[in-house]
Design brief:
heterodimer, A: alpha/beta, Rossmann fold, Alpha-Beta Plaits, 2 domains, 6-stranded mixed sheet, 4-stranded antiparallel sheet, B: mainly alpha, MetI-like fold, about 0% strand, binds adenosine-5'-triphosphate, binds magnesium ion
């Protein structure tokens, strides 16, 4: 749905994007995770060309945006919704006026606009607040207006730059739930950037981890967690550095099976559990355990675990 | 002089001042508003960056603002004659008033527009809005309280400038004060014009403040 290739953007002496590629599939929620200054916002703004990359191409919904002139680009942007960290609502307009803005830009007639605005406000749970001004709303409500506005043009893609970082945890959760619902009900593809692991854990299907203008790893969350040496796994499950010989077992989708006790029963091993956790991710429960295995059945036990589809990493 | 003698003079002079200020305000907005928008839009990082043009406009505006009004008024006499056919009188005065106020107002417009957050402009761009739409539906409406405040300041300044109309036989309250109060030592007339001027300025300022407050939804 969104395909970016070889994006490069330099500001003076800062290389904000250093050859970034991105592939977001239709209907998924894709998170870009990274620390402040990693280049996340720059990447997102390159997707709808608010920022022109110095090199590279961007294709959204089959249309190569980087090849378009300004007029066609403006038309293409109407099919890409964007949600902003600080809401970016027009203070001169009411809630309904804000949601109507993109419809006015598209030239939708007044009666049709009014109908659509009512529909959108209901969709985000703000029915009846149309006549209020943004300053009368809470942060979470403002972001709902922002989301309704972003959806006005029936976009196929929603871009979100830290949509929840100005919100408290409870409000964050409800806005994330709304995004999840829109993703499911409307089949909306969402590309969101965040510096909060929590956001990734609760709604993302796929993730890219960014640092210093590069993407360090990217893919679907379950896939990444099954990849040896995954940074995502280390960040989701903060365990201490393993000592040589220690074993890290990652299990996605098997969290309810008592594999460890099976191993102890079947093989001649002692298991010492050093640490671990189970996390509820969008794709299901995922767990990670740090253990020490001792005894003659050690190799057979490891092979058994691998056979069961678990990721087994032995520190050397 | 008695009040019966002063009143008609005062009435006429007030009318002349209102005439000069009203028309020059209108023309100031007509020319100053687009100029202020241009100063913002053509700037680096603006809606349509054109730094050379922007610098040229800014230079012209600065020249306009650095000339004392009295000098401007006299220097413009040939131009005024070209535009209105005469170079003296209340109507002729509208030309230098406008020329003097346009750069002043344009700078205030520029300042008000720069107050509009970059994020709302970018949000509009992300929605596929063109430049004219952004000016008309984002920049100007968002800056409206600031624009009204700027206009208020401009009108008050115009009232001040208009008092110099007497120099080119322009009439108005300033001229009245000069002819009676200064040249004939009629303190009563002087006081009366001062009071009328204060009342007018107060009225405009209060009206402007009220409007700016009503329009602001921040
Ligand atoms: N318009 C700009 N001019 C100059 N430098 C910029 C500009 N925008 C971004 N940068 C620089 O590019 C780098 C990446 O910035 P970016 O905003 O993309 O980071 P980020 O990952 O979104 O960080 P944050 O989490 O703080 O929002 C930073 O070093 C930043 O200083
Ligand atoms: Mg950012």
């Amino acid at each position: 749905m969104i395909q970016a290739c070889g994006l490069r953007k330099v500001y003076g002496s800062t290389v904000a994007l250093d050859g970034v590629g991105l592939h977001v599939r239709q209907g998924e929620i894709f998170g870009v995770l990274g620390q402040s200054g990693a280049g996340k916002s720059t990447l997102l703004r390159c997707v709808n060309l608010l920022e022109r990359p110095d090199a590279g191409t961007v294709t959204v919904d089959g249309q190569e945006l980087t090849a378009l002139g300004q007029r066609e680009l403006n038309r293409a942007r109407r099919r890409i919704g964007m949600v902003h960290q600080h809401f970016a609502l027009l203070s001169s307009r009411t809630v309904a006026g804000n949601v109507a803005f993109p419809l006015e830009v598209m030239g939708v007639p007044r009666a049709e606009r009014r109908r659509r605005v009512a529909e959108l406000l209901e969709l985000v749970g703000l029915e009846g607040r149309g006549k209020d001004h943004p300053r009368q709303l809470s942060g979470g409500q403002k972001q709902r207006v922002g989301i309704a506005r972003a959806l006005a043009g029936n976009p196929s893609v929603l871009l979100s730059d830290e949509a929840t970082s100005a919100l408290d945890p409870g409000t964050t959760e409800s806005v994330l739930a709304l995004l999840r619902r829109l993703n499911r009900e409307l089949g909306l593809t969402i590309l969101l950037i965040t510096h909060e692991m929590n956001v990734v854990k609760s709604i993302c299907d796929s993730v890219a981890i960014m640092a210093r203008g590069r993407i360090e790893e990217s893919g679907s969350i379950t896939e990444l967690l099954r990849t040896p040496g995954s940074r995502l796994a280390r960040e989701v499950f903060p365990l201490p550095e393993p000592r040589p010989g220690q074993v890290t077992v990652t299990f996605a989708g098997h969290a309810e099976e008592p594999v460890i006790s099976q191993v102890v029963r079947k093989f001649d091993v002692d298991v010492n559990i050093l640490g671990g956790a189970v996390e509820q991710l969008a794709g299901g429960a995922v767990g990670r355990l740090r253990v020490e295995l001792a005894g003659g059945g050690r190799e057979a036990a490891l092979a058994y675990l691998r056979e069961r589809g678990l990721l087994v990493e032995v520190a050397s | 002089m008695t009040w019966e003698e002063i009143a008609p003079l005062l009435w006429q002079a007030t009318g002349e001042t209102v005439h000069m200020v009203a028309w020059s305000t209108l023309f100031t907005v007509v020319f100053g508003l687009p100029l202020g928008v241009a100063l913002v839009a053509f700037d680096k990082g603006g809606l349509r960056p054109a730094p050379v043009l922007q610098n040229a406009l800014a230079a012209i505006v600065n020249v306009g603002r650095s000339l004392p009004f009295l000098v401007l008024m006299i220097a413009l006499i040939p131009f005024t004659r070209l535009v209105v056919g005469v170079s003296i009188g209340t109507t002729a005065m509208i030309v230098p008033l406008t020329v003097g106020a346009v750069p002043f107002f344009a700078r205030l417009v520029e300042a008000a527009l720069r107050e509009v957050g970059r994020d709302v402009v970018q949000a509009a761009q992300a929605m596929g809005a063109g430049r004219l739409t952004i000016v008309g539906k984002v920049l100007l409406p968002e800056a409206l309280p600031g624009l009204v405040a700027g206009l208020t300041v401009t009108v008050v300044a115009l009232i001040g400038y208009s008092a110099m109309a007497g120099v080119i036989g322009g009439g108005g309250l300033g001229d009245l004060a000069k002819r009676y109060g200064y040249e004939r030592f009629e303190t009563g007339v002087m006081l009366a014009t001062v009071v009328v001027l204060i009342v007018i300025v107060q009225l405009i300022q209060s009206l402007g403040d009220f409007a700016a407050r009503r329009l602001s939804h921040k």
